[in-house]
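User: Here's a structure from my thesis project, written as structure tokens. My advisor, Dr. K., wants to see whether a designed sequence matches the one we expressed. Can you design one independently, without my sequence as a hint?
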């Protein structure tokens, strides 16, 4: 089983969409709402504790039907089956893509089960204090050292599930910036801190540099023999971890069939299990699995990731939208966008198709955003009155966690009101002058979830994972490699040699040469 290799622009549906776009590109959503009282009901999906309203989009039934035709012609069903079957759909790296297998409790690989049991026992001990530091004190602080997929996921989840957090403080050291490392260490007590080094490859320059610096700092007052009480690691490269000096009982495996940006469901989530307890970590995984099943089993027209992906393709490839915005109305989700940026942009930032040909159409969207209501007072002006069409996802929760009704009502009112303002603008209204005109007709999706729980959070993240996969399938690209990151890494190595040796004789570019010389 492999991924189909269909050029989307050669499908019948693509030609149909081009023609259809010309017919409806200037139509106003407002008039569709007025003409069709069932629009909101028809263009929404209720699933588990999710209500997804996609009616405020510049689509009609014909658009949807053509988009579904395109998905069929692109072989989306076959692609979904190929992914879940464990086929090597990451062909350029010769790997399967099975992050979904990490959360499939009914059908779990023995090595995954075993690792989950190890995560449970380790995190239980750290939380209940039976895991002792070298001097016999319980752990108070857990520090995750990793970058990219080995940092963004756990950091985002720990922040999102703060409400469920126990007494442990969690910290994240990611950037190779030494100031970041030293700032993070400033308040930590060596005797009560546990460091988890997370790196799929265990070759990442930033993580290894940071891990070495932290170990030297640790050894300023502690002994080599104490390391095993304070350092754990998560990696596929078990030899390199042992070489670093971490004892085997503190090593957690991960596997090549889990991409870094999809790895929070593996032992990469160890800091999450420590922060919120294993039960909540498992609930997160179960929530993701529920979304996996929805994605795998639901017809395209009721399938949340599929519908959201196709609508996004519609704006990207027909309206020419370059970016999309994500605005969660929950301060807990303030790291969600950074996390999704890696997932979405590292996956779909590709310009060669699955046949090895340079694409003739747009692929990966630029994803950006921040939490509401803060974003309203920052960049919303541009979405409302700027010249660009920026489809926006509004994510909100029906119930808050602390039950502050007054705040919650205002938070939701702002969220819903923004989608309406973007839809209506001042169209048909009398305004004093042209500066006060809001064009409106700006597309939004609203994802209303009952409550922020580990389970609903798991479902939400899995929703975006599947959405990006569907887009990659349609664009005929390989979403699961990331060759583009490699060149910069190579050049950084050469440049480091120049900086360290204070010599630019091997630096060819004049601008880089001057920059290096100015830094001495
Ligand atoms: O987990 P590591 O092997 O240290 O990799 C960390 C990160 O490295 C690179 O930047 C990759 O592009 C990312 O996908 C990965 O998450």
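Assistant: Designed independently from the structure alone:
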């Amino acid at each position: 089983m492999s991924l189909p290799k269909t050029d989307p622009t050669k499908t019948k549906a693509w030609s149909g969409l081009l023609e259809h776009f010309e017919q409806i590109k200037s139509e106003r959503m407002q008039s569709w709402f007025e003409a069709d009282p069932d629009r909101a009901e028809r263009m929404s999906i209720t699933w588990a504790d999710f209500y997804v309203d996609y009616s405020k989009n510049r689509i009609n039934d014909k658009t949807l039907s053509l988009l579904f035709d395109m998905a069929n012609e692109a072989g989306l069903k076959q692609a979904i089956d190929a992914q879940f079957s464990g086929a090597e759909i990451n062909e350029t790296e010769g790997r399967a893509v099975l992050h979904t297998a990490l959360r499939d409790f009914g059908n779990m690989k023995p090595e995954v089960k075993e690792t989950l049991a190890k995560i449970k026992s380790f995190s239980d001990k750290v939380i209940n204090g039976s895991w002792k530091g070298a001097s016999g004190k319980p752990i108070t602080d857990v520090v995750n050292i990793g970058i990219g997929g080995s940092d963004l996921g756990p950091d985002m989840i720990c922040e999102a599930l703060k409400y469920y957090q126990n007494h442990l403080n969690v910290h994240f050291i990611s950037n190779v910036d030494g100031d970041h490392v030293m700032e993070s260490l400033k308040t930590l007590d060596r005797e009560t801190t546990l460091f988890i080094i997370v790196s799929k490859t265990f070759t990442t320059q930033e993580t290894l540099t940071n891990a070495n610096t932290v170990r030297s700092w640790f050894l300023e007052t502690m002994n080599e023999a104490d390391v095993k009480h304070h350092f754990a690691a998560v990696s596929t490269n078990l030899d390199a971890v042992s070489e670093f000096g971490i004892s085997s009982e503190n090593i957690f495996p991960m596997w090549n069939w889990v991409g870094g940006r999809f790895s929070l469901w593996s032992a990469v989530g160890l800091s999450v299990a420590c922060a919120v307890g294993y039960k909540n970590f498992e609930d997160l995984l179960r929530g993701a699995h529920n979304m996996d099943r929805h994605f795998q089993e639901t017809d395209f027209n009721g399938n949340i990731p599929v519908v959201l992906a196709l609508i996004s393709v519609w704006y990207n490839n027909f309206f020419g939208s370059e970016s999309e915005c994500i605005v969660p109305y929950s301060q807990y989700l303030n790291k969600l966008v950074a996390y999704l940026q890696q997932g979405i942009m590292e996956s779909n930032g590709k310009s060669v198709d699955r046949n090895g040909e340079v694409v003739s159409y747009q692929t990966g969207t630029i994803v950006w955003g921040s939490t509401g209501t803060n974003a309203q007072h920052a960049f919303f002006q541009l979405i409302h009155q700027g010249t660009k069409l920026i489809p926006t996802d509004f994510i909100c929760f029906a119930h808050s966690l602390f039950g502050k009704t007054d705040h919650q009502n205002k938070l939701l009112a702002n969220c819903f009101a923004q989608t309406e303002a973007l839809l209506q603008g001042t169209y048909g209204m009398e305004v004093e002058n042209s500066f006060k005109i809001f064009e409106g007709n700006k597309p939004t999706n609203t994802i209303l979830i009952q409550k922020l729980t580990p389970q609903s959070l798991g479902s939400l993240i899995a929703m975006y994972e599947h959405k990006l996969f569907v887009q990659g399938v349609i664009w005929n690209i390989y979403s699961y490699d990331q060759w583009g990151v490699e060149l910069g890494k190579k050049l950084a190595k050469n440049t480091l040699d120049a900086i360290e040796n204070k010599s630019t004789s091997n630096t060819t570019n004049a601008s880089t040469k001057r920059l290096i010389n100015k830094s001495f």
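When you compare it with your expressed construct, this may help: Residues 147-150, 199-201, 204, 207, 260-261, 346, 482, 485 surround 6-O-phosphono-alpha-D-glucopyranose (CB under 6 Å).
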